[in-house]
Delta(3)-Delta(2)-enoyl-CoA isomerase
Amino acid sequence: MCTLEKRGNIFFLTLTGDNEHRLNPTLIGSLRSALREAREQSTRGSALITTAHGKFFSNGFDLAWAQSGGSPSAARDRLHHMVVLFRPLVADLISLPMPTIAAVTGHAAAAGMLLAMSHDYVLMRSDRGVLYMSELDIGMTLPENAMAVVRSKVGSAAARRDLLLKASKVRAAEAVAMGIVDSAHDSAEGVVEAAVRLGKELTKRKWDGEVYGEIRKSLYPELRGILGLADKVVTASSKL
């Protein structure tokens, strides 16, 4: 599951426990509920840091839950259900009215990696953990909204190729060089500390959250369109 805690102007969204933080309907629902709470409680100058306990940031969709449906057709239906549920979670992050930081303290694979990349900034530990789009290895295509996240957030065509067509397991230093991760740090604690420093730096700017969210959506027009996020004009009238 997950918890949401507010310290000053920073929200800490934490995937709790020492499991793989597999994304099933229960966890996706819990994450969306936490993001709604953060949205409702946000003020000018808020920020969000997402992190996780244990070895994994998130190991992607809960395939065991999908397979527990019994028949192969039921498993496919359950997998499709998770894909459908995950899309609005990405939309929640892309439209959230505050800067967002993923403090990737462990492995992030498949939908777990997409979850991290749906944040504005991605920080990663260098002593352990990889980023890994596993779909080619497990024989599964990616939905269009997942491809839009990769195209929007990974600028290098070569990096996208290696992620998706080589199923590379990318460690932190390489991820920084590929432009997927903003910075690498020596430990899980170091990642979170760096995320907090960045969060405090961003909150000092006291940006209007609604304006921030609208500019973010406009930055990724393909992703905005696929997610069905409406575009609107916002002006911070106090600055005019």
